[in-house]
Amino acid sequence: MSPEDLAGLRFTTTMVEVEGREEEVVVEIPPFEPLPWGARTRLETVGHRAVRTDAVAKVTGSARYTADIQIPGMLHARLVRSPIACGTMSDLAVRVAWRVPGVRAVLTPRDVAGMKWLHGAPPFHEAIHYEGQPVAAVAADDPIAARAAARAIVAGWRSRTPIVGPAPGGMRRGRGPARVEVRRRHRGNVLRAIRGSPAAVTQVYRVPAVLHQALEPHGCVACWHGDRLTVFESTQGIFRVRRQLARHLGLRIHQVRVVSDYMGGGFGAKNGCGVHTIAAALLSRATGRPVKLVLDRREESLSTGHRPETVMRVTLAAGRDGLLTAIDFEAWIALGADGWIGGPGQVAYRMYRCPHVRTVEHYAYTHAGPMSAFRAPYFVEGAFALESAMDLLARRLRRDPLELRLRNLATSDPERDRPYSANALVACYADVARRIAWSDRRGGEPQADTVARVARGVGVAAQVWGAAGGPPAYAEVRVHRDGTALVVTGTQDLGTGTRTILAQIAAEVLGLPPAAVHVVLGDTDAGPYAGNSWGSMTTASVGPAVRMAAEDAKRQLFQMAAELLGVSAARLSVRRGRIVAGTGRKSVAFERVTEHLGEIMIVGRGHRGPNPESVTVATFGAQAAEVEVELDTGMVRVLRLAAAHDCGRAINPELAESQIHGGLLQGLGYALFERRVQDPASGLTLNAGLHDYKIPTMADVPYIEARVISSGDPVANHIGARGLAEAPIIPTAPAIANAVFHALGVQPTDLPLTPATILALVRKRRRRRARGPAPGASGPRSASGASSRTSGRTSRKTRRS
User: Fold this and answer.
1) What percent helix, strand, coil does the chain show, rounded to 5?
2) Which of 137, 443, 722, 739 could, after both became Cys, cross-link 459 (CB 3.0–4.6 A)?
3) Can 726 be counted among the known catalytic residues?
4) By three-state DSSP, how is residue 81 classified?
5) With 80 as the cut, is the pLDDT of residue 224 above it?
């Protein structure tokens, strides 16, 4: 950067959306912005399938994850956890633990009493708020000794009656034992619109608490060097962990280094510093030796976060033309011992064009492990309720569910009243409808095999998700004398392929093959700042910074190449490893220029500029499911899933499709299998660990067709990309549930769709068929068995809520 550039540094503020929450951040205005890669820009590397740069390391086992790290003299640590869900701990006795051979340190609440922690509470405390809450820690020479010492620590436990799950009848402010926060929003006059609408439906939907179950558990290795702490952590945000560690331990930021080289998934559960990180750092400081602390599967289930259990009541009203007139959305959310407020009602504001919308959300703090972000947090829950209610309304109006959605499509942002930077949702609908043969299968009655006792149906659902990314994010591109390049940034790769994507962007600018570009990330000491990998932000945030840094490095190279070729630098371009002048009569190999420079360092620097102010940047997608329901056993088999998602330019279509597959599989588990089960009397989790908590296996995977509707979005940013990773999980469960609704004619309202749930629906269907249509009934009946026409009683009930 020239002195003129430095003298012109300017700053502004911009809005950044993270998982449905907007915040204003200060951003440095870039000294230059490259021309956007538009939809018709010809690109050689970006937008094409490329082999993952870390593929060989992962399949050969040479990639080092946190649990693989071995340091001479390293100790192993274990956390001691509460066996009760609510109450107090007293008389903690550690003498027996000290007698276990190999024990080197024991950490108790007394040792951390003066520390700062979230909401002012220290990492270990006598007040117990959930089963598995850490109360002490030990470090020993080996894992076996550490586990034995942890089991040797005993305490007195005084248990109290816990609060478990959402309770719509007692969660209003001032009633019931739970601490409750209520958030209300509205536009228009919902109650008047419902009363004036010829058609309305009301239904209550329930979704369970579900667990992340990442392949790699939470864990870290902490090591002190004098007054500096190095932590190897499985995390989605190395700089956030560094900042939190420094605050908790009373250190300056430069005294903490956080490294996350390879990571085996997080899905939102690894966004910050955990108790295990604090404990490992304190034990390492106490012993003067490195300490490794990796959680087991039971600990993962109890204390590392979950998607919260939620009850939602949705009322939709529409005119006879099918246009929505009102959406009334009320939710009761059981956060657990802690959590953040986002809201399933956001989907009601964003998904469809509707003049009258009201949301009321009740957040209760209960006796379970803390809630944490989980891939598209709150939107997954809200979409199940809203998209299910849309199918219920379609049946009430005798309209095709897909046609009803297209009729109410939001062509601009209904929440902020401004246009989208781009929106290809219509193309997504058309794509999945064609691949699922929607018009053929929804044209008449659902398919049924009376001999095999199965019913088949198809369903559809859609999603919207904030995907702009944003600053701050910085990157450097260094060009070596042999013509290769190094990208350095402070982001992290969760397993999504960030290394490959950033290499492709730099290679595109420099005219190099991706194999000639190496990416260094995941180290707070090595790379410039980048934010957490959350909210589908990484590519849209760090990608533009890498491109800008590569453009800066290319500009410096062109100045030297111009002297070698005897032409103006403005006439130069780069093509397939050669720097070309004008029409191509004069050119020079890339490495000849860099070799001529010798050891002169060419370092390009770039950072992410502000988000556009006058438009909303979002990602859209549609999914369709075909299911088969066994009427005698209640088993639901998903035969086919078709997905189409619009994320702007897909830097690497293969990686983008892989993200869609991952979201579909997690959504499949949410629809059919997954739920955390708590005993209501004790608050204890009954299915902690993968033995009892079912997630999809390869035997459950249906035929999947995933497609990216890829077209550069030059308004969003100059690489034309929007975030994708979290969005594909949003429509999967409602699409499957709507397919079951189509197959049975009775709507499922509770997830997961277990055999017991389905058999109850089958019995309801039999009773309904035995009764026949009620005298004077108008239109199909709702899933609850009552007419879906809004009655005066329903209106009064809605008004009271």
Assistant:
1) 30, 30, 40
2) 739
3) yes
4) strand
5) yes
Residue 616 DSSP code: B
Query: Which residue type is seen at 609?
Result: G
Q: Is the peptide bond before 344 cis (omega within 30 degrees of 0)?
A: no
Measured CA distances, 151 to 112, 144, 157 (Å): 21, 11, 15
The confidence score (pLDDT) of residue 588 equals 87
Give me the residue label for tokens 């809630």: 371
- Please tell me the predicted confidence (pLDDT) of residue 448: 65
Interatomic CA distance for residues 274 and 270, integer angstroms: 8
Please list, in sequence order, all residues whose beta carbon lies within 8 angstroms of the beta carbon of residue 17, skipping any fewer than 6 positions away: 466, 468, 470, 535
Options 131, 309, 330, 726, the catalytic residue: 726
233 part of a folded domain: yes
Examine the pLDDT at 779 and tell me if it is beyond 70. no
Contact 724, 716 (CB under 8 A): no
Structural domain boundaries enclosing 23 = 3-63+469-607
Q: What is the pLDDT of residues 313-363, one digit of tens each?
A: 999 999 999 999 999 999 999 999 999 999 999 999 999 999 999 999 999
Euclidean distance between CA atoms 773 and 787, whole angstroms: 11
Q: Is 684 exposed, middle or buried (0-12, 13-18, 19+ CB in 10 A)?
A: buried
Q: Is residue 169 part of a domain?
A: no
The structural domain count of the chain equals: 3
CA distance 540 to 607: 12
DSSP secondary-structure letter at 587? E
Asked if residue 693 has pLDDT above 50, the reply is yes
Query: How many angstroms separate the CA atoms of 769 and 15, rounded?
Result: 54
Q: What is the pLDDT of residue 39?
A: 80
> 3-class SS at 539?
helix
C-alpha to C-alpha distance for 183 and 204, rounded to whole angstroms: 19
Do 206 and 274 belong together in one domain? Answer: no
Whether 286 and 359 share a structural domain: no
Provide the token pair at 639.
Answer: 């035969």
Which residues neighbour 548 within 8 Å (Cβ) at sequence distance 6 or greater? 30, 32, 33, 34, 475, 604, 605, 606, 607, 718
Looking at the structure, do residues 426 and 499 belong to the same domain, yes or no? no
Residue range 252-259: mean pLDDT, rounded: 98
In a domain, 167, yes or no: no
DSSP calls for 202-228: EEEEEE--B----SSPSEEEEEEETTE
Residue 354 tokens, joined: 């509707």
Which residues, 6 or more positions from 159, have their beta carbon under 8 angstroms from its beta carbon? Answer: 84, 85, 86, 87, 682
Runs of H (alpha helix) within 125-231? 143-152, 190-195
Distance CA 91, CA 376 (A): 42
Q: What sign results for the dihedral spanned by CA atoms 788, 794, 798, 801?
A: negative
From 273, 303, 333, the end of a domain falls on: 303
> DSSP 3-state assignment of 697?
coil
CATH of residue 55's domain is 3.30.365.10
Q: What is the DSSP letter of 3?
A: H
End-to-end CA separation in angstroms for the chain: 59
Q: 173, 363 in Cβ contact below 8 A? A: no
